[in-house]
Specification:
heterodimer; A: 291 residues; alpha+beta; elongated; B: alpha/beta; six-stranded mixed sheet; 11 strands
Chain lengths: 291, 264
């Protein structure tokens, strides 16, 4: 029995030689659909990354009293590192604050005379990416926590920026992810139908197998393998093409003032796309036999 | 072997079969005759489970078609083989693979399978063509491949739907000889055809004629046609019976014509 199963699986591979034109066109169609879907995913991924970098975070600027004990402050900075939803933390001692200030003035301001006697307070700039559902409460609580840290004089919090972050997160949650889901569904339908059409060209074979008393699984197994191979090969080719396209256009928008390098989405995304299309191909092979 | 009782079948508003009844004993050879559209193919499709039997009752090789569950269809088809006018061979596979297909789905061990395939191929004159792709064969050879695939499993019943329809007269007679040869080995055969010449070549065969979905004639080979009805009702196994429908079921439009036993 196991031998039969392996034989049928092998037949799924061997059947790729049958009707090579139809097989090639199906593979091309699957690749094209996966490529177009992937291109859109690449666009969304880069857009999301950029907007998140620019607008998607809540920024708190925490100022300590100028006379605060720097050892205590440094210890507090270490603790801040473990705050939930912290995306980035930048800290400035009074001296570092002075350097940053001079640097931000483009070298036109000489503050060397204040070295060692900086009037600037120890400062921490904290960027958070909280869950949008509980953001208002979370922001209020975080503000209160930071204001009550020992030695802290004031905490600045940009309400407009917070609103922007909230709006973007809402947009992403209500539009981008459903859009990606819809894209996946469209891809699945097109790839599924394409593979199913190919398998329908083998309806005579399916009919004959039914006629000689084959059970459904006996007929389905090679078709499932063929469908899965088409899904996998098509998505793998598409990922290769996407990587090539991304390499060619990576610097297209990377110039001032945009400075947007186009990066490839994580390989987990590519693997997920290949996995989904492989499953869709296999499923199409399965349903092609249903009467 | 086969018992068909008051079977009707419709495709929408068209009644393809109306109240068809007949019996067939093991080892018999039956010609199912009639013009195109008479219902021959529909009847055969019902007999091998390709269409659901919704009106009437039928038993084939121990399977009650009116109660047949979907998962039982493969089992029925392991007892009932079918040969078609358009051969239905896998063109891209070899003659050997086509014949072996019917045994592979039964998980027959390779050694036995090989022996059976070669023996059947030899009996049909295909032993030199076993490695050839079936698509490269002539029509007559492809039909022999289809017959080989049907008989290699030793079916209880062999159904043939216009098996000579795509062949010239000489090849058609050669095919009939092949069916006759397997009939002498005890295979029960139903051969649907509108070829009267073919029917006349098998004088001892039983004949059921369909027209517009109804049995309009049936013979009792070697005997008086009038005795047919008596024999049909008297003995189930020995019966070579085809009882022409005298009245369609209530939901079948129009009465059936009177039987015409001598009209074939």
């Amino acid at each position: 029995m196991i031998g039969v199963v392996f034989k049928l699986l092998g037949r799924g591979f061997a059947d790729l030689r049958v009707n090579p034109w139809a097989q090639t066109l199906t593979l091309a169609a699957v690749t094209l659909v996966a490529f177009l879907g992937g291109l859109f995913l690449l666009f969304l991924f880069n857009l999301n990354a950029e907007l998140e970098r620019a607008r998607g975070e809540l920024i708190f600027q925490v100022y300590w009293r100028p006379d605060a004990d720097m050892d205590v402050v440094a210890s507090q900075w270490e603790q801040l590192e473990h705050l939930p939803a912290l995306a980035a933390r930048t800290t400035y001692t009074p001296e570092q604050g002075l350097e940053a200030l001079a640097s931000s003035m483009g070298g036109g301001l000489d503050l060397q005379w204040l070295r060692g006697e900086s009037p600037l307070p120890p400062t921490a700039v904290l960027a958070f990416s909280p869950d949008v559902a509980e953001e208002e409460t979370w922001t209020r609580d975080m503000l209160a926590y930071l204001e009550h840290l020992p030695g802290v004089e004031k905490v600045h919090f940009n309400v407009v920026r917070a609103n922007l972050a909230r709006a973007w997160k809402g947009f992403r949650q209500h539009l981008v992810w459903p859009l990606i889901g819809f894209l996946g569904l469209v891809q699945a339908l097109i790839v599924g139908n394409t593979v199913k059409l190919l398998l329908l060209s083998r309806r005579t074979e399916i009919e004959i197998l039914h006629l000689v008393g084959a059970r459904d699984w006996y007929i389905q197994l090679p078709l499932v393998v063929s469908g899965a191979l088409h899904g996998f090969a098509g998505s793998a080719l598409a990922v290769g093409l996407l990587k090539g396209v991304q390499y060619l256009i990576r610097d297209l928008l990377d110039f001032p003032p945009l400075n947007l390098p186009i990066v490839f989405f994580p390989w987990e995304y590519a693997a997920a796309m290949a996995g989904v299309l492989t499953l869709v191909g296999a499923f199409s092979g399965w349903v092609a036999v249903r009467r | 072997m086969l018992n068909v009782r008051h079977v009707s079948h419709n495709f929408g508003s068209h009644w393809a079969l109306k109240n068809v009844s007949f019996e067939l004993a093991k080892g018999e050879f039956l010609f199912l005759s009639g013009p195109s559209g008479a219902g021959k193919t529909t009847l055969l499709r019902l007999l091998y489970g390709s269409l659901p039997l919704e009106r009437g009752k039928a038993t084939v090789a121990g399977f009650r078609l009116h109660d047949l569950r979907r998962r039982e269809i493969p089992l029925l088809r392991r007892q009932v083989s079918v040969v078609f006018q358009d051969f239905k061979v896998l063109a891209h596979r070899s003659v050997y693979d086509n014949i072996a297909l019917a045994l592979e789905v039964r998980f027959m061990p390779r050694r036995h399978l090989d022996r059976r395939v070669r023996a059947v191929a030899r009996s049909l004159g295909l032993e030199r063509r076993l490695a050839a792709p079936s698509g490269e064969l002539s029509g007559g050879e492809q039909q022999r491949v289809a017959i080989a695939r049907a008989i290699v499993v030793n079916p209880q019943l062999l159904l043939a739907d216009e098996p000579t329809g795509n062949l010239d007269a000489d090849l058609a007679l050669r095919m009939l000889e092949i069916f006759q040869q397997f009939h002498t080995f005890g295979t029960t055969i139903i051969l649907a055809t509108h070829n009267r010449d073919l029917i006349s070549r098998q004088p001892d065969a039983r004949i059921v004629r369909l027209e517009e979905g109804q049995v309009v004639a049936a013979n009792w080979p070697g005997g008086d046609p009038a005795s047919f009805r008596t024999a049909a009702t008297a003995a189930a196994t020995a019966t070579s019976g085809a009882t022409a429908s005298k009245a369609a079921p209530a939901d079948v439009p129009g009465p059936g014509p009177e039987p015409e036993e001598d009209r074939l």
